[in-house]
Amino acid sequence: MNKRNVVPGVITLLFLCGCTTVKEEYHEKFQNKTVASTGHFADSTIAMLGNLNLQFNPADTVVVRRFVEPTAQPEIHAKELHDDMLEGISAIVWYSVKLVDINQTGKSESERVALYGEYLKTFRKRLLAKGRCNEKDFDDTVASVLNQQTLLQALQVAQPLLDTMITDAALQIGDLIDSVKVLSEAIDKRIDADYVKIIRYRKTLEEEKFNILEAYELIYEAYRTHSPNLDGLRDSGVMWDDSVIPEGTPTRDDLKAIAEHLSVRLTALRAVQQEIQPDWDEYLKIHVELDRIAQKIIDDAVRTRVLMLTWIRAHQSLAQGATQAAEWFDITDLGKQLIKDAPSTIIP
Fold first, then answer.
1. DSSP letters along 199-256, please?
2. pTM summary value
């Protein structure tokens, strides 16, 4: 059975709680107002990242949830990485909205540059804490931004910081996927430990069934020969009552009696199998649910990483002076290639 790649206790928390709020506040503040290219950029960002559906319905984890231990280290680690990923996505959306705010609030290019430079400082703590850049590089970049004459120039100078932000977010997604794999292995062990007797019974019954079928094969071969030899059947130990196997050459009646004995064994075996079948079905159902959740979470994580890379390419185009949204978020070209290469995008 394949290892599962997801954990329902973490998945129930997978929702972009801030993006709906971002979208509502953004439209309330800027709807029906004339904005520069930053407005279209923010619209495109919200449409792309604000509608990510990372929520998993708790009702879909009916049989798995009892194996989740919220206070266990694998769960805690996965949740921390997940929360950090959401924080990163939210920061990207808010950044795009903030550009519109700066464009609207700033009365001159120099004032817009000043506002933008001050806003970039809000990312200092996060980037330094993660070791993505050092203090000097960050401060030098912001100082250079503040020395620019126009907001467009400031965006160009700030591009390395934005690249670092996206790299950080992409790395976090890779770490999240790895942590979910570790967590899934832990849950697998919990499930197997809980169903250890059923697993053992099932294995024993399967072995017993094939032993009986092999005994049937020996009887079938004996029927086809004039000098049947049942030494192989006697040595196999499959017969519970050795007296059923006659000494010397067996007659057809002897072979018939052995076949009837094996038939009784199969009937008894089938009864035991039916007795444990509900538990076995439940065991399989749990793993099927895990597989389904795993596929959803891996797909969501990869798609999120693809969209992040699409966004940073779009920001590069915006900083270079592109004014059409289609030039930023070129899903027909860049997006399709990214989706095609999704498993290896940014991070292996």
1. HHHHHHHHHHHHHHHHHHHHHHHHHTSSS---HHHHHHT--S-GGGS-SSSPPHHHHH
2. 0.69
